[in-house]
Amino acid sequence: MSVHDAHAMERQQPLLNAAQWVAPVEAALARLVEIPAALLVVAEIVVLLAGVIWRYVLHSPLIWSDELASTLFLWLAMLGSVVALQRNEHMRMTALVGKASPQTRAFLEVVAVAVPVLFLSLMVMPGVEFAIEEDFITTPALDISGAWHAAAFPVGSVLMLVVALLRLARTGGWQALAGGIGLVAGIAAIFVAAAPVLHELGNINLLIFFVLLVGTMVLAGVPIAFAFGIATLGYIGLTTNVPDIVLVGRMNEGMAHLILLAVPLFVVLGLLMEMTGIARTMVAFLVSLLGHVRGGLYYVLVGAMYLVSGISGSKAADMAAIAPVLFPEMQKRGEPEGELLALLSATGAQTETIPPSLVLITIGSVTGVSIAALFTGGLLPGLVLGLVLCLVVRWRLRGKVTPGTGLRASWGTVGKCFVIALPGLALPFVIRWAVISGATTATEVSTIGIAYAVIVGVLVYRSFDLKRLMPMLVETASLSGAILLIIGAATAMSWALTQSGFSQSLAAAMAALPGGQATFLAVSILAFIVLGSVLEGIPAIVLFGPLLFPIARQMGVHEVHYAMVVILSMGVGLFAPPFGVGYYSACAVSRIHPDAGLKPILPYLLALIIGVAVIAAIPWISIGFL
Question: Does the bond joining 356 to the residue before it have cis omega, within 30 degrees of 0?
Answer without folding.
Answer: yes
